[in-house]
């Protein structure tokens, strides 16, 4: 990486401005690519202007006036041999008034719009010229910038760097030859200074080969970085755990169901990883209700049988408690102690759990992020399982991993040295293929791609909220006949207090309106024991109708609940809706999810989302649509916090390049370490690190 100070002509002031944009090196400046381009290579006659076009004209000022009605504005009229054009400025400096005095020749660039007096441009860029000022020879790049840093200053700096001879190819000949794309140097040059004969549209939609080349390079850097990281971690040591001989069979015998083929497949993948002396780094994906918990439990047993402890972390207390209950019910009959740890335990309970974990008596510890606080000491942690992994930040997962890294010794060998626990991450938010190939390239991925048999798909209804009364009655009738229902209150992003109030009001109303029903309320602000009591009562069918905020979104499993109403569904994200809907349809009864939406408040995107959720129950399809609507940033959640996103490549548009980059990355890592580091050098100056965990 070369510091900007190496470039003569970039002043310290300019340098510090560039640094504000995150540009700290020559390489980063080179890769600071334009957002769009202006065609200032031509001058259009005023007579030939067309509405809506971005065009450059040149003429002499014939009128300059500041008017005050209806508001203060500067009106300038410019004339060429063919006509007159009005320029209007609503914000302007005195210096602009004097720069555009009558008689002055100007070159003006802007969008042509209809105005009071014929065509006009509002806030065009304009500069003084003389008769013989040449037009630009290249399309004009427009860069992402920050306050105080002008386009021309960035252009100047880029220009200096482009003259500098550091644009060499990082790909070795064989890799470059098979690429059939322009080389790096000409691609970068072209994108910064495209010649006027290039179709603007191919630059703007990034289909131009030069853009494609850089998108490819960026994807390749991401692949290299993540795969390298993956390989490094694969070199650290972990306990090699042979396949279970007794415990797993013992558990499966007691289950009222058999594992599906998809569950068996992922169990085998995990079991194989655990048997290796290197840490497993596996992401287990499966749609809501696909049965990930039992898979995690089977993995846990493989370790427990060999005397290693397992930690299982869930993002909410409700979910952690539910896991604890389920796992304890499965494991206690096998003589295994399960401990439970959350932030809301009292001191005595907590100390008891801590000592069970520290002594190694508890072979499995289930909990929230309370699991990785400092005073939690495992005797011999061999596997950490993270449920709903996207809910956790990078730091939290790292902390849990470190729990097992405390300078343990390999059993039997007596050689000191640290070993790491295996790691299994689970996610019910399916990750589209392109995302898992890119941002998750540092993990192995297992997918449970079928649901347990006997589930009837949830019927989804979209109903405008002017029919709320009717729906209330319907929920009442269903509950009176023995069904159980969730009533999910609207998400109110601006105010948690308001959201709470809405939930309270709804609850109060329903209690009063439905005296024969047992109505419950659960929300995020409740104390845990309260929440637990409510969920237990709902599980035991002592509550018929559960009014809830979105806290029930993840994981909650009450098979008898078969009806869900979601208010203001148009405000919720796709994966949130999918998760919520996944709370019903878990038992044998036919389930329905009613999405109430407000006709007035439904945005274009809201409408798009409702259509997707109405038409599909397939998590992968929904995730793909979500990626399309929101882009990868939102979908990745906190996974990438602090880790840069792709800037040039677009996973949807450039999916074909991703495939190519993946293959080349593997080959490069095997064949040409020097090329790998050269490529990473160039691109990592842009993106410090692709992987933090
Ligand atoms: P998720 O993948 O959403 O975490 P769970 O692990 O909570 O799903 O499983 C959902 C429900 O399906 C649970 O009640 C679980 O006991 C049940 N289940 C899991 N596997 C099977 C199976 N193979 N056959 C029938 N039911 C199953
Ligand atoms: Mg789950």
- Beta-strand residue percentage: 15-25%
CATH superfamily of the largest domain: P-loop containing nucleotide triphosphate hydrolases
Report the principal-axis shape: globular
CATH class term of the largest domain: Alpha Beta
Using only C-alpha atoms, the radius of gyration works out to 31 Å
Helix proportion: 25-40%
CATH architecture of the largest domain: 3-Layer(aba) Sandwich
Task: Please give the largest β-sheet.
Answer: 7 strands, mixed
Helix count from the secondary structure assignment? 24
Give the strand order of the largest sheet, numbering strands 1, 2, ... along the chain.
6-7-4-3-2-5-8
Ligand inventory reads: adenosine-5'-diphosphate, magnesium ion
DSSP, total strands: 22
Spell out the key features of this protein:
693 residues; alpha/beta; OB fold (Dihydrolipoamide Acetyltransferase, E2P); Rossmann fold; 4 domains; 7-stranded parallel beta sheet; 22 strands; disordered C terminus; binds adenosine-5'-diphosphate; binds magnesium ion
Write a brief caption for the model:
This protein is α/β, with parallel strands linked by helices and 693 residues long.
């Amino acid at each position: 990486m070369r510091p900007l100070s190496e470039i003569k002509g970039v002043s310290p002031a300019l340098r510090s401005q560039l640094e504000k944009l995150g540009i700290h090196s020559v390489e980063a400046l080179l890769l600071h690519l334009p957002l769009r381009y202006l065609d200032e290579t031509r001058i259009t006659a005023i007579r030939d202007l067309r509405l809506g076009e971005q065009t450059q004209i040149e003429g002499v000022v014939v009128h300059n006036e500041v008017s005050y009605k209806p508001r203060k504005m500067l009106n300038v009229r410019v004339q060429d041999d063919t006509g007159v054009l009005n320029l209007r400025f609503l914000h302007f400096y005195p210096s602009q008034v004097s720069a555009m005095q009558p008689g002055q020749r100007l070159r003006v660039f802007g969008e042509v719009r209809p105005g009071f007096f014929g065509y006009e441009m509002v806030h065009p860029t304009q500069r003084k010229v003389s008769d013989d000022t040449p037009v630009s020879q290249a399309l004009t790049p427009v860069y992402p910038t920050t306050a105080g840093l002008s386009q021309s200053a960035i252009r100047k700096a880029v220009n200096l760097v482009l003259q500098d001879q550091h644009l060499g190819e990082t790909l070795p000949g064989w890799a470059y030859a098979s690429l059939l794309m322009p080389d790096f140097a000409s691609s970068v040059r072209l994108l910064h200074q495209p010649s006027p004969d290039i179709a603007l549209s191919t630059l703007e939609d990034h289909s131009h080969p030069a853009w494609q080349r850089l998108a490819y390079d960026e994807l390749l850097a991401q692949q290299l970085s993540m795969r390298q990281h993956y390989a490094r971690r694969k070199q650290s040591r972990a306990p090699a755990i042979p396949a279970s001989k007794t415990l797993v069979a013992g558990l499966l015998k007691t289950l009222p169901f058999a594992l599906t083929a998809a569950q068996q497949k992922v169990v085998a993948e995990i079991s194989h990883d655990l048997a290796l002396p290197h840490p497993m780094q596996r992401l287990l994906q499966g749609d809501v209700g696909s049965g990930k918990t039992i898979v995690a439990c089977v993995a846990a047993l493989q370790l427990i049988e060999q005397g290693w402890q397992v930690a299982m972390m869930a993002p909410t207390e409700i979910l952690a408690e539910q896991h604890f209950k389920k796992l304890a019910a499965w494991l206690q009959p096998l003589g295994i102690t399960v401990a439970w740890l959350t932030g809301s335990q009292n001191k005595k309970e907590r100390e008891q759990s801590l000592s069970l974990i520290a002594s190694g008596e508890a072979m499995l510890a289930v909990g929230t992020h309370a699991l990785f606080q400092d005073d939690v000491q495992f005797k011999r942690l061999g596997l950490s399982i993270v449920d709903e992994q996207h809910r956790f930040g990078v730091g939290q997962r790292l902390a849990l991993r470190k729990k097992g890294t405390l300078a343990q010794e390999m059993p039997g060998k007596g050689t000191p040295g640290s070993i790491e626990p295996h790691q299994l991450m689970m996610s019910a938010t399916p990750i589209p293929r392109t995302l898992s190939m890119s941002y998750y390239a540092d993990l192995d991925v297992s997918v449970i791609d079928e649901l347990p048999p006997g589930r009837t798909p949830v019927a989804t209804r979209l109903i405008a909220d002017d029919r709320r009364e009717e729906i209330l009655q319907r929920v009442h009738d269903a509950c009176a006949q023995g069904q159980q229902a969730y009533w999910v209150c609207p998400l109110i992003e601006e105010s948690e207090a308001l959201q709470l109030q809405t939930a309270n009001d709804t609850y109060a109303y329903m209690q009063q309106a439905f005296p024969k029903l047992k109505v419950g309320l659960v929300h995020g602000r409740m104390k845990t024991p309260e929440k637990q009591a409510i969920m237990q009562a709902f599980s035991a069918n002592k509550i018929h109708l559960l009014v809830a905020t979105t806290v029930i979104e993840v994981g909650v499993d009450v098979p008898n609940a078969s009806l869900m109403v979601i208010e203001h569904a148009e405000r919720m994200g796709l994966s949130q809706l999918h998760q919520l809907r996944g709370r019903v349809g878990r038992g044998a009864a036919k389930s329905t999810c009613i999405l109430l939406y407000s006709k007035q408040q439904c945005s274009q995107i809201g409408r798009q989302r409702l259509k997707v959720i109405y038409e599909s129950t397939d998590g992968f399809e929904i995730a793909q649509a979500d990626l399309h609507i929101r882009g990868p940033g939102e979908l990745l959640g906190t996974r990438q916090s602090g880790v840069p996103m792709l800037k040039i490549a677009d996973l949807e548009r450039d999916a074909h390049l991703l495939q190519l980059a993946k293959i080349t990355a593997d080959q490069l890592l095997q064949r040409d370490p020097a090329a790998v580091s050269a490529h990473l050098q160039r691109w990592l100056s842009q993106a410090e690190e692709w992987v933090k965990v």
